[in-house]
Amino acid sequence: xxxxxxxxxxxxxxxxxxxxxxxxxxxxxxxxxxxxxxxxxxxxxxxxxxxxxxxxxxxxxxxxxxxxxxxxxxxxxxxxxxxxxxxxxxxxxxxxxxxxxxxxxxxxxxxxxxxxxxxxxxxxxxxxxxxxxxxxxxxxxxxxxxxxxxxxxxxxxxxxxxxxxxxxxxxxxxxxxxxxxxxxxxxxxxxxxxxxxxxxxxxxxxxxx
Length: 209
Hints:
Elements: E1 3-4, H1 17-29, E2 40-44, H2 48-59, E3 69-75, E4 84-86, E5 91-92, E6 99-100, H3 103-110, E7 115-117, H4 120-125, H5 133-139, E8 148-154, H6 159-173, E9 178-184, H7 205-208
Parallel strand pairs: 1-5, 2-9, 3-8, 3-9, 4-7
Antiparallel strand pairs: 4-8, 5-6
């Protein structure tokens, strides 16, 4: 047990609690209210200067009053995993309030044999999960102590294993008090990512992408 430090605070986003709270609130306030609350969202995990305003459109749809459990699924960028990874820790830190992990549910998932436990070093090196923690803390502020999170680090899965995990997690998605956050890169295009596919008939590169 223990706490995962907010290792990307101060670089990928501000570590000043007051400034961070105002920044998140500002982005959320600019998004019109959705007509229906979502059960799952796909949101980016880049630095907030790039992804913050876009992520607000997803988090605006989270109905905090009806949610007690939040799954966060994010890809592993630094460690090779052949399956999905779970945390042994008790909470995740953010500058605006820590998030408690659902130890009972994590134990239940681990018992299926389909998951591995992560080392703290691997957890703290990864940004795909951390970038969503301040947003969750912000939108769930009125339910402090009344909800928990289930972080899941997704490894290099095959099409077959993706289907397997989808079926394994689908019963939790059906629970009315459970919300899923899917952390995405959206698009990694360029030589540094070894991906430069370009359809010239589409016009400018951004249109092709």
